[in-house]
Specification:
Layout: H1 6-30, H2 35-49, H3 58-77, H4 89-92, H5 99-118, H6 121-131, H7 137-144, H8 148-169
InterPro entries: RNA_pol_sigma-70-like (IPR039425), RNA_pol_sigma-70_dom (IPR014284), RNA_pol_sigma70_r2 (IPR007627), RNA_pol_sigma70_r4_t2 (IPR013249), RNA_pol_sigma_r2 (IPR013325), RNA_pol_sigma_r3/r4-like (IPR013324), WH-like_DNA-bd_sf (IPR036388)
Pfam families: Sigma70_r2 (PF04542), Sigma70_r4_2 (PF08281)
Domain RNA polymerase sigma-70 region: 15-78
Length: 170
């Protein structure tokens, strides 16, 4: 009969004695990046099996677990046959936006309209001249008799109001 905790002590000693060997094995077989994870998995499998105390040669049993783990990983990485299907234009065509997107777009449009109506008059005018009439900052400045910097200021204010309205809504 074994004393309580003796399995943990024996496993700890076995782990310390064999870890470097197992790690080196995996570095040669699987590479430096995968080696630590694979080594950890080998010792986890050994501990779960409970074979450390039953095996006549636990080092050989550990090596067998390591080989089996490499075989399992190779099976998982084996490329599967690729299936090719002909392109069906009707099935694979881009579908129109669904109803939810249309509703959200309409809600966003209403939000922008309310936000533009709530803007100060000069800011609203500059914003609409730029966004609706597609006028340049120079054209807006000439039309209103202000500097380009003033037009830029009002555009920044208008865009900040729009951003804040959207952020508050969603």
């Amino acid at each position: 009969m074994t004393a309580p905790g003796s399995t943990a002590v024996s496993f700890d000693a076995f782990y310390r004695a064999q870890h470097a060997r197992v790690l080196g094995y995996f570095r040669r077989k699987a590479g430096r990046d995968a080696a630590p994870d694979l080594a950890q998995e080998v010792f986890t499998r050994l501990l779960r099996s409970g074979a450390l105390e039953r095996a006549e040669c636990p080092e050989a049993y550990l090596t067998r677990i390591a080989r089996n783990l490499l075989i399992d990983n190779a099976r998982c990485k084996r490329p599967r046959p690729t299936a090719f299907y002909s392109l069906d234009e009707e099935r694979d065509a881009v579908s129109c936006a669904d109803q939810t997107w249309r509703i959200e777009a309409a809600d966003l449009s209403h939000l922008y309209r309310r936000t533009v109506r709530a803007m100060p008059p000069k800011t609203r005018r500059v914003f609409l001249m730029r966004r609706v009439r597609r006028m340049s900052y120079k054209e807006i400045a000439a039309s209103l008799g202000v500097s380009v910097a003033t037009v830029d200021y009002h555009m920044v204010q208008a865009l900040a109001l729009c951003r804040a309205a959207v952020a508050a809504q969603w």
